[in-house]
Amino acid sequence: MFIILAILAFGLLIAIHELGHFFSAKLLGVRVIEFAIGMGPKLIGFQGKETLYTLRLLPLGGFCTMDGQDESMEDPRAFTSQRRWRRIVILLAGSAANIIAAFIIIAILTAGSAGFIGTTLTGIADGFPNEGEDGLMVGDTIVSINGERLFYAQDFSTFMQFAGGREVNLVILRDGERLTLNNFPLERREFVIDGEVEYRFGLTFNFIEATAGQQLRHSVYTTFNFARLIRVTLAQLFAGEVGLPDIAGPVGIVDAMSGIAQESPTMGAAIGNIAFFTAFIGVNLAVMNLLPIPALDGGRILFIIISWLIEKVIRRQLDPKYEGYIHSGAMVLLFGLMILVLVNDVVRLIGR
Fold it and tell me: Is 18 among the catalytic positions?
């Protein structure tokens, strides 16, 4: 059942993204030829007034095909006949829809929270080795770790994990003054807390009551933080710190969702965890689609800007078919990457 819920959640993300393109195109008067959920052979479909709506076999994506998307047409309702700002709005709308949906999911899940944990120290465990004026003191607010801004205690845990046990550069706020602690040794160790040995950093942070304003702030922050984590992960990918085995495709994402649900103590918690992970994947989908890579929305936006600059110089309009060739070639490469990631997901599942 959890696998079915995960598949439905992943399909919903794709539908929301494509609906963003669909509704913005309709509002701006662009003719939509086909709106599809999934890729590959058509399972079912029906013809609307001017748009074919289809559900396809492979849950690897979806598409919203607009008239004149990659070729010049005289039709005023064709995509390429629209002013540049209209085309950019349509391309941005898919990612915007995913981000808005993620925020709504997070806001609903946050509505039941009693409070949140901040980054101001309210306690330091006995035996903490770096307490004092040259280290950390009760009342200090940890502002950033290695240049990454902290908003809540979960950020502290996340970026300490990224640090991998190495010394970190801290910026703290003490009595209204910012202080920098470079190469600060901060790692998990054994502390005796209430008579029990615990393996932790030895720091206790402040509690923030979940007022309506704080709930809204936390929801906005969490949505932003999802995007930030994607940036950090991409940086690790380009630095060679993570590789193909660490990348998950649709099969890996569905498996991760199902695993998170199965580890939840109750059915309600399982559904909540799937919803939270769905919000994260939604922001991931939005950000990845805006990368300046041909065939993705970000690549198409980049080409619109580049073609505008070129046309300003040569003083004549470029034929959109050449851009279409580039996007088509890039789509073939993206499909190849998707297949590679899919095989990697399956191999990882079999090897468990």
Answer: yes
